[in-house]
């Protein structure tokens, strides 16, 4: 027991040095039903050219069609040509160490607590957030247009002070990948999520029609996915996909996720233009969706299910 309590206080990186494998609090009861990551088929993940999407060229329409069909089909895509330079108690625990940093709004940044090494970390993170913020706006407008809505309708729902949370995920190698998940299945509480995948090590999987699929690595692409709050805003037309991360026996994996969410004081609800007699309102209004997210998550539930009408 003492050893177990002690092990919970360690970082996963430290635990990964132990040859006996992860402590019991990391072990899934039934494993995840695989003998290695490669037993899942590779996902045919749509690719969208953001440069073209934002342009006024004729190709922008084609990208808009792709966006519409990607989001109707699955709720995620890989964004290319985005113009952002990529730098280089009871619950079963996830095999990862995480660093969370609020990057927007600017006044909630705690710069003094951000890592000092590498030296340019804070500068790069601020710059990166600003660039993604621009891309987020392009995508939100594209999504509105893809649903024949006024282009600012989702940007407006994000409110005056939308938030951005950066989460850095370190997934050390795990000696028993069939028993441990690096991140359990979840939908993101965000409005929108941008993920910089590890350049070499796969691990992310999406659930589609009751089957798990591996998300392939496309160098320099950013994985975008719809979060729960955008599912609400689109009245369920675009769904927040369930995803998880599997562990890897040999290799460490590092990713960075950026969660863009509406101002916690803004009302989030299905856009008026997406409600009619054929498609009634499917979700109740909500303010500060993320506030109860982890409470629900720990009970194996999703707050979005509680909002369904
Ligand atoms: O690291 C990954 O591949 C995905 C991480 C993720 O889903 C999350 O942080 O919400
Ligand atoms: Fe996620």
From TrEMBL:
Residue intervals of the Fe2OG dioxygenase domain: 162-262
Keyword Acetylation: no
One matching Pfam family: DIOX_N
Coiled-coil residues: none
Leader sequence segment: none
PROSITE patterns named in the record: FE2OG_OXY
InterPro entries linked: DIOX_N, IPNS-like_FE2OG_OXY, IPNS-like_sf, Oxoglu/Fe-dep_dioxygenase_dom, Plant_2OG-oxidoreductases
Key words, A-Z: Iron, Metal-binding, Oxidoreductase
Keyword Nucleotidyltransferase: no
GO-annotated molecular function: metal ion binding; oxidoreductase activity, acting on paired donors, with incorporation or reduction of molecular oxygen
Family: Belongs to the iron/ascorbate-dependent oxidoreductase family.
Record PANTHER family: OXOGLUTARATE/IRON-DEPENDENT DIOXYGENASE
Descriptive protein name: Fe2OG dioxygenase domain-containing protein
Species this chain originates from: Ilex paraguariensis (yerba mate)
């Amino acid at each position: 027991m003492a050893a177990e309590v002690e092990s919970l206080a360690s970082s996963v990186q430290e635990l990964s040095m132990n040859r006996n494998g992860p402590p019991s609090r990391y072990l899934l009861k039934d494993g995840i039903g695989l003998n290695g990551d490669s037993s899942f088929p590779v996902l045919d993940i749509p690719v969208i050219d953001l440069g073209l999407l934002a342009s006024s060229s004729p190709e922008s329409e084609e990208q808009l069609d792709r966006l519409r069909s990607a989001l109707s089909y699955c709720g995620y895509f890989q964004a290319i040509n985005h113009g952002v330079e990529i730098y280089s108690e009871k619950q079963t625990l996830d095999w990862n160490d995480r660093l969370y940093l609020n990057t927007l709004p600017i006044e909630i940044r705690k710069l003094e607590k951000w890592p000092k090494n590498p030296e340019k970390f804070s500068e790069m993170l601020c710059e990166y957030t600003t660039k993604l913020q621009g891309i987020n706006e392009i995508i939100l407008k594209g999504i509105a247009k893809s649903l024949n809505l006024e282009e600012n309708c989702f940007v407006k729902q994000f409110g005056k002070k939308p938030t951005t949370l950066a989460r850095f995920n370190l997934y050390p190698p795990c000696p028993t990948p069939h028993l441990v998940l690096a991140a359990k299945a979840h939908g993101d509480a965000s409005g929108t999520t941008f993920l910089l995948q590890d350049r070499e090590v796969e691990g992310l999987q999406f659930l589609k029609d009751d089957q798990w699929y591996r998300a392939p690595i496309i160098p320099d692409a950013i994985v975008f996915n719809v979060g729960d709050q955008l599912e609400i805003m689109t009245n369920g037309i675009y769904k927040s996909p369930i995803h998880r991360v599997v562990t890897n026996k040999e290799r460490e994996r590092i990713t960075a996720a950026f969660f863009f969410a509406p101002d916690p004081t803004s009302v989030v609800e299905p856009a008026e233009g997406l409600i009619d007699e054929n498609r009634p309102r499917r979700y109740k209004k909500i303010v500060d969706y993320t506030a109860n997210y982890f409470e629900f998550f720990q009970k194996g539930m999703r707050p979005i299910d509680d909002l369904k009408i």
